[in-house]
């Protein structure tokens, strides 16, 4: 598997230019806001979403000025959702740094998230990138629906596999689908091609989220700052647990539900449940589903002409599910 740095090679110059432009766009006349946005930029992650935008544009005709705007829009919307998520989850850290709400409290964090959201939308409106607005507004609507559906199911613990896939398609895959679709649109791709790229992003996003859910059952979770069993503690019914529940007899089902509902803060009971999920075959089943979505994405990519962009978006797909954090 190629490293992220190697995957970035065909678009390294473009990513550097994107970063410069993005920093300029984030500058504000409001001192407090400028201080916070500077902090956000300083702790940026892997920038996989801008990479998907750039590589998608590359395989659909080439990177243009609109591609940089699409990548900036996606990054602003993504950052806004992360800031809001940390408030909702009462999370004090993200990527090893203090969250915005930890440093400046919830009220300011919510307002910063709102600012980033509106700033992204204004960027598209100013340049009349209305196709971007349509794609990203659909994604943000679905992300909210997915999160609310997950919260509803966490209260009732009545989730089936098809509902799980509906949740992750909306809450995670919809934004990666928007990355690939806006990237294609920025290169002047046809409506049909944009929809094909959107489907590609959906496949990638589902596989990406399944990988995140698998981290909950792996010792590597501790290495990435995610405590083992955190999804169980938050009453999130992910695919390994759904599969284990489906295989269990009535007595075991009652025990599983009881642990998730009433003993999710008990580390010993959570570890016992994790071990049961592993023994039930839940990890293997979930991994197989993840691989299926990866294969769907790679099959779609094969339809494009050979190029460094095609090669590296394939590598980025592989990286998404083979990553260690």
Topology:
Blueprint: H1 4-7, H2 12-25, H3 31-42, H4 48-59, H5 65-89, E1 93-94, E2 97-98, H6 100-126, H7 130-156, H8 161-186, H9 191-215, H10 220-223, H11 230-233, H12 239-247, H13 250-262, H14 267-279, H15 282-301, H16 308-322
Antiparallel strand pairs: 1-2
Helix pairs in contact: 4-5, 4-8, 4-16, 5-6, 5-8, 7-8, 8-9, 9-15, 9-16, 12-14, 12-15, 15-16
Give the helices and strands as they follow along the chain: HHHHHEEHHHHHHHHHHH
Give the strand order, joined by hyphens, for the main sheet: 1-2
Helix content: over 70%
Global structural class: mainly alpha
Strand content: under 5%
Which regions contain 5 or more consecutive residues with pLDDT less than 50?
220-226
Oligomer: single chain
CATH superfamily of the domain at 4-202 and 297-322: Farnesyl Diphosphate Synthase
Q: Please report the first level of CATH classification, the CATH class of the domain at 4-202 and 297-322.
A: Mainly Alpha
State the CATH topology of the domain at 4-202 and 297-322.
Farnesyl Diphosphate Synthase
Biggest sheet record: 2 strands, antiparallel
Q: Got a strand count?
A: 2
Shape: globular
Q: Tell me the Rg in angstroms.
A: 20 Å
Calculate the terminal CA-CA distance, rounded to whole Å.
14 Å
Mean pLDDT: 91
Number of helices: 16
CATH architecture of the domain at 4-202 and 297-322: Orthogonal Bundle
């Amino acid at each position: 598997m190629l490293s992220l740095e190697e995957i970035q090679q065909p678009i390294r110059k473009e990513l550097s230019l994107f970063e410069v432009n993005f920093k300029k766009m984030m500058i504000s006349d409001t001192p407090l806001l400028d201080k916070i946005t500077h902090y956000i930029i300083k702790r940026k992650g892997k920038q996989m979403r801008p990479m998907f935008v750039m590589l998608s544009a590359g395989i659909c005709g080439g990177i243009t000025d609109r591609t940089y705007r699409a990548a900036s829009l996606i990054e602003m919307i993504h950052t806004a959702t992360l800031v809001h998520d940390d408030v909702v989850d009462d999370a004090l850290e993200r990527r090893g740094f203090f969250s915005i709400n930890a440093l400046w409290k919830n009220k300011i964090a919510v307002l910063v998230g709102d600012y980033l959201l509106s700033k992204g939308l204004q960027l598209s409106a100013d340049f009349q990138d209305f196709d971007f607005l349509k794609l990203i507004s659909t994604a943000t609507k679905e992300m909210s629906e997915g999160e609310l559906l997950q919260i509803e199911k966490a209260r009732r613990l009545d989730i089936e596999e098809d509902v799980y896939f509906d949740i992750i398609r909306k809450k995670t895959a919809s934004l990666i689908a928007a990355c690939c679709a806006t990237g294609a649109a920025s290169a002047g791709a046809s409506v049909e091609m944009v929809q094909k790229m959107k489907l590609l992003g959906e496949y990638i996003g589902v596989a990406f989220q399944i990988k995140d859910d698998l981290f909950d059952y792996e010792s590597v979770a501790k290495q990435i700052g995610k405590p083992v069993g955190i999804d169980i503690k938050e009453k999130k019914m992910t695919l390994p647990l759904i599969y284990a529940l489906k295989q269990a007899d009535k007595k075991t089902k009652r025990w599983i539900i009881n642990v998730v509902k009433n003993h999710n803060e008990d580390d010993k009971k959570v570890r016992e449940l994790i071990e049961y999920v592993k023994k039930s075959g839940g990890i293997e089943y979930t991994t197989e589903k993840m691989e299926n979505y990866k294969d769907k994405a790679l099959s779609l990519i094969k339809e494009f002409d050979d190029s460094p962009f095609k090669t590296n978006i394939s590598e980025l797909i592989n990286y998404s599910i083979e990553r260690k954090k």
